[in-house]
Amino acid sequence: MNRNDATATAEVPAPPQEGDYPPWPLALNFRAIKMTDEQFLQFCADNGDLRFEFTAKQELIVMPPSASRTGWREGQLYFQVESWSRNDGSGITFGPSAGFILPNGAIRAPDVCWGIKERWEEWEERLRAEGKEDTFAEFVPDFVIELRSPTDNLRTLQAKMSEYIENGVRLGWLIDPRQRRVYVYRPGQSAETLEDPETVTGETALPGFILNLQDIW
Amino acid sequence: MNRNDATATAEVPAPPQKGDYPPWPLALNFRAIKMTDEQFVQLCADNRELRIELTAERELIVMPPANPSTGWKNNTISGELYIWAKQDGTGLSFDSSTGFTFPNGAMRSPDASWVARERWDALPEDERNIFSHLVPDFVIELRSPTDNLRTLQAKMAEYIENGVRLGWLIDPRQQRVYVYRPGQPAETLDDPETVTGETVLPGFTLNLQDIW
């Protein structure tokens, strides 16, 4: 019996581990709750230390903050896409906190994504016409990247990539640093697996973009 | 680089650990979400594998399932209370899956509770199928390895402020029982062999040797 340890509360928390139960991310069945986009946006803001998504099956997905190295990798990915995009000029790049409403009703926040500027401006126009502030955009990015963190379940991420493509994304990369693999998703094709690639190219969706993976692994 | 471990998905999950982050239980600020009592009941039913409470500040508290050791202790305590309540006949005992809505708006699920029969009988039928607006006369909370003691102590104080007449916080790790009564500070019993129900549950004695 140790009477000294029980009231200690200021421990440094351990990061989420693979195998934690319930597993992160936590999925809450949210069918019973009716909420507007504005309420959901407020809910996300009220819980700023957590990240949320909402699935087409009406599950609220609760994600912990990124582990530090994962956050660093997200930054590297954003930087590479944005550097290309500034030169290219045809689209805009979004970081990991941007949520989008997909045609199937899901609200997803890809780790990095990019969309054609003209299409984005149409959305901005619609926002202005409706007199709305910034909200979750009804906008499907042309290109998405998901980065697998140590706690992410691979199959869950693969299903999410397929969902992106079914909803109109033209090119998707699932980057798995642990396996040093990139899974490439394209409409009408099964996913292609690249083993330990040095680079991946943006094909026709992002002409001229080459992602250097040596910086990421 | 290990290519073999990454696609394994059927691992046995580890129970929650003290120090997990985000910590369990998870608290979600729920102020922006409007829901009726019925929707809340449905939300909990739709997430049966999780235990859910709502605080007076409208935080949704999401708790993982109990580990078997805590579950066994909890079941033992509930069983003792049930046996006494059945023989006594003046009230009903409730298990840890039961939610009550308190006057401050919180919905809580004590690990075990008891309500005097005349108060239960006075409850309208439609109140029995939601998280009833009914304050138990007696509650027990059992501290699990992942429970923060101060959080549980605040919860016990909240029970008493909302009309509970007797509350026991049982902490197996310290082998302590904290006894909460209206208008008094909590009393700490160090390694007691038994606790008694005093005037609220006359004749009820919980033997703690089974629990420690």
What is the alpha-carbon Rg of chain B in Å?
Answer: 18 Å
Strands of chain A, count:
13
Low-pLDDT segments, ≥5 res of chain A: 1-14
CATH class of the domain at 67-212 in chain A: Alpha Beta
Structural class given helices, strands, pairing of chain B?
Answer: alpha+beta
Question: Average pLDDT of chain A, to the nearest integer?
Answer: 87
> Which radius of gyration of chain A do the C-alpha atoms yield?
19 Å
User: What gross morphology of chain B would you assign?
Assistant: globular
Coarse shape of chain A: globular
Number of helices of chain B: 4
How would you portray this structure in words?
Helices cover 26% and strands 24% of the residues of chain A. Chain A has helices spanning 37-46, 68-88, 117-129, 154-166, and strands at 26-29, 51-54, 59-63, 91-94, 100-101, 107-108, 112-116, 143-147, 171-176, 181-185, 192-195, 199-201, 210-212. In chain A, the strands form four sheets. A six-stranded mixed beta sheet of chain A has the order 4-7-8-9-10-11, with helices on both faces. A three-stranded antiparallel beta sheet of chain A has the order 1-3-2, with no helix packed on it. A two-stranded antiparallel sheet of chain A has the order 5-6. In chain A, a hairpin with a 6-residue loop joins strand 10 and strand 11 (192-195). Mean pLDDT of chain A is 87; it is low at 1-14. Chain B has 212 residues and is α+β, with helices and mostly antiparallel strands. Chain B has a domain at 68-207: tt1808, chain A (Alpha-Beta Complex), CATH 3.90.1570. Chain B has helices at 37-46, 68-88, 117-121, 149-161, and strands spanning 26-29, 51-54, 59-63, 91-94, 100-101, 107-108, 112-116, 138-142, 166-171, 176-180, 187-190, 194-196, 205-207. In chain B, the strands form four sheets. Chain B has a six-stranded mixed beta sheet with strand order 4-7-8-9-10-11, with helices on both faces. Chain B has a three-stranded antiparallel beta sheet with strand order 1-3-2, with no helix packed on it. Chain B has a two-stranded antiparallel ribbon with strand order 5-6.
